[in-house]
Amino acid sequence: MADEERRDEEQPEGAGDQPAAEPDAEETAEEPKAEAHEPEAPAEDAEAGGKEPDAEEEPEAAAAPEPPKESGGPAKDSKRAESEDKTPPGAELEPIQIEPQRELSAEERARLEAEAEERARAEAEATAEAGEEPAPAREPAVELPSEARIQATGKRKSSIARVVLRAGSGGFEINRRGLEEYFPRHQHQTFVRQPLVTSGYEGKVDVRVRVQGGGIAGQAGAVRHGIARALTEIDPDLRGELKRRGLLTRDARAKERRKAGLKKARKRPQFSKR
Q1: What phi and psi values does residue 155 have, to the nearest 5 degrees?
Q2: Half-sphere exposure of 120 (CA within 13 A, CB side)
Q3: pTM (2 decimals)?
Q4: Which long-range contacts (CB under 8 A, 24 or more apart) does 114-121 make?
């Protein structure tokens, strides 16, 4: 008890109300608060500094799209023009309805073939008039006796024609058929008559022919060659005129034979390196 009374006397007045360790605790509590607030200042500055340019840029960005918002301006006209340009050309036209192709009858097929033949004849006449000189209007210098019988042989490609000329009125007999029947194309008929027209013997001799081998064009060339040769037997002076027009020349052009290892005469298989 004496010890406790001594301690109370030694303590100053008012010391019993507050403990001595409390001020130190308050100072220690205030120090971390100050340290906690110190790093927040630069963050606030950074936020303030970062927000300032955004606040400045926002009015510019908002001001840029203002012109298109105007009603009735050029922007709407441009949009309309773009929408009109996007429509494909001819969209307003009505679609064409294609009818299914029907089979042709025999009469229609024959009519189409006749029209094709007529066009080919007209083209042949046009090419003949443009590429060949007109035949001279001349009278034959030598008349063929009624008993005479002139023979000659004409060749073209693989066709051979044996021609016999006699005095007559211009008749044609080819393999016991008429000229129009054997050569239905007008081009071949003109081709066969060319030596007679050039020499002036057309309508004054009868022609009888036996022809074999080759095709229709080759046979027509062989008959023309034989008639030209027979005319030179009648009148040797005709040789110059017929030769100049190429009627006496043996046309040696023919299809070349196929060689071994090739597809045709000169066509080779495609080369493959790999």
Answers
A1: -135, 145
A2: 12
A3: 0.51
A4: 117/184, 117/185, 120/185, 120/186, 120/187, 121/185, 121/186, 121/187
Give all strands (DSSP E) within 81-216, no chain letters.
150-156, 159-167, 172-174, 205-212
Is residue 221 within 8 Å of 157, Cβ to Cβ?
A: yes
Residue pair 199/185 in contact by the 8 Å Cβ criterion:
no
For residue range 208-249, list pLDDT tens digits in order.
999 999 999 999 999 999 999 999 999 999 999 999 999 999
Residues 222, 213: Cα–Cα separation, whole Å: 10
* Cα–Cα–Cα angle for 104, 106, 107, rounded to 5 degrees: 95
Q: What is the DSSP letter of 177?
A: B
pLDDT tens per residue, range 129-178: 544 554 555 677 788 888 889 999 999 999 999 999 999 999 999 999 99
- Lookup: tokens for 25: 């605790």
CB 241 within 8 A of CB 195: no
DSSP letter at 170? S
Rounded Cα distance between 210 and 215, Å, is 14
